[in-house]
UniProtKB/TrEMBL annotation:
GO-annotated biological processes: DNA restriction-modification system
Membrane-spanning residues: none
InterPro entries in UniProt: Restrct_endonuc-II-like (IPR011335), Restrct_endonuc_IV_Mrr (IPR007560), tRNA_endonuc-like_dom_sf (IPR011856), Type_IV_Methyl-Rstrct_Enzyme (IPR052906)
Keyword entries, A-Z: Endonuclease, Hydrolase, Nuclease
Protein name: Restriction endonuclease
Domain Restriction endonuclease type IV Mrr: from-to ranges: 209-323
PANTHER family the record matches: MRR RESTRICTION SYSTEM PROTEIN, TYPE IV METHYL-DIRECTED RESTRICTION ENZYME ECOKMRR
GO MF, one annotated term: DNA binding
Length: 342
């Protein structure tokens, strides 16, 4: 399932604090676009031409070249600091830099990660500038308070979460890595989690396992005013969550919620029939939620049954679940979360 958020509405940025030994700083600085010896940012030409130059020109010729051009000197520096880089040429530029980032990330320690989600619209971002600046300052101060930074050089830097480095950090120590490791989503503020999942480079049905998906569905319905209780697993199935709510008139109502995250297949009529049987026998209200979609036969079968029985069952597909998730996001579209890596 593809996350169908408006890519023009929210900007996802990461802040990472790295602690490193002095002998690791040169490679780190170079890959981040900072000349480690001249102490300046690399020029646009240097950054733009390095990959093609290293790919097309013999490396021995580069090393022996006497030509005094900035991008040639920077290419020499890459060959000196990354002698293994020849193993990563012959691929795309994106893959090349991703490999180099992975090399560097093995030598430095990300001690803290922060995420910022803010509107793309310039006017709205301007209104949030003070809040974003405050976050940056707090993040920087907290990073230096971490005991793992003692006697080490610390770099704190922002970058788009969709960048090559953003992807590498996510895979190794980011929230995506934690989610894939099976961490409970209840450890994250719901607004932050929704922003993260909806703006992730991966659709959330690939990020979350079945247990986390159940938790996510529970969070969504809690946001709609239900009190949620997870059930013990049984072979019969039919309900993953029991939801209760007191109506405005004081009436207590109960609903069963089934949460299914199939790897590939659609939800078939047999699964809907099983859920319907449980609802009919034990309560009168149910929600069947999936990250996928229901087959046409499953929808038709249920509609016929609902015309005959006094029960209420709603089928919630992935797109509608995304819509519900978006309602969890804070109205100003700005959230952040500090993650201290182990």
């Amino acid at each position: 399932m593809k996350n169908v958020t408006n890519s023009n509405s929210t900007y996802n940025e990461m802040y990472v604090a790295f602690a490193m030994e002095k002998n690791s700083t040169q490679r780190f600085e170079l890959i981040t676009g900072f000349h480690p010896f001249e102490k300046r940012m690399l020029t646009e030409r240097e950054e733009r031409q390095i990959f093609s130059f290293l790919s097309l020109v013999n490396h021995t010729e580069i090393i022996n070249s006497k030509v005094d051009l900035d991008y040639i000197k920077t290419a020499k520096l890459y060959l000196k600091l990354f002698p293994e880089l020849h193993n990563y040429l012959g691929t795309s530029e994106q893959s090349f830099y991703k490999k180099l980032w992975q090399v560097v990330l093995n030598e430095v320690l990300p001690v803290k990660i922060g995420y910022v989600f803010s509107p793309y619209a310039t006017a709205t971002r301007t209104l949030l500038k003070d809040k974003i600046d405050k976050f940056k300052s707090e993040f920087h101060d907290l990073s230096y308070q971490d005991l793992r930074t003692k006697n080490k050089i610390v770099w704190t830097m922002p970058f788009p979460a969709s960048s090559e480095f953003g992807v590498v950090v996510e895979e190794k120590v980011g929230i995506g890595s934690a989610l894939k490791g099976g961490i409970s989503i209840n450890q994250f503020p719901s607004g932050f989690l929704s922003n993260y999942l909806l703006n992730s480079q991966q659709s959330f049905d690939k990020l979350l396992n079945a247990n986390q998906f159940e938790e996510l569905v529970g969070v969504v319905y809690e946001n709609e005013g239900w009190k949620i209780k997870r059930t013990k697993k049984t072979r019969d199935g039919g309900k993953d969550l029991i939801a209760t709510k007191i109506t405005d008139s004081g009436e207590k109502i109960m609903a069963y919620i089934e949460a299914k995250k199939p790897d590939k297949n659609k939800i078939k009529v047999e699964q809907v029939r099983e859920f319907y049987g449980v609802i009919r026998d034990e309560t009168n209200r149910g929600y069947f939620v999936t990250s996928s979609v229901f087959t046409r036969d499953a929808k038709r079968w249920l509609q016929k049954k609902l015309n005959l029985a006094p029960v209420t069952i709603e089928l919630i597909e992935g797109k509608e679940l995304i819509s519900k998730l978006s309602k969890l996001i804070d109205g100003n579209a700005f959230t952040y979360f500090h993650n201290t890596t182990p």
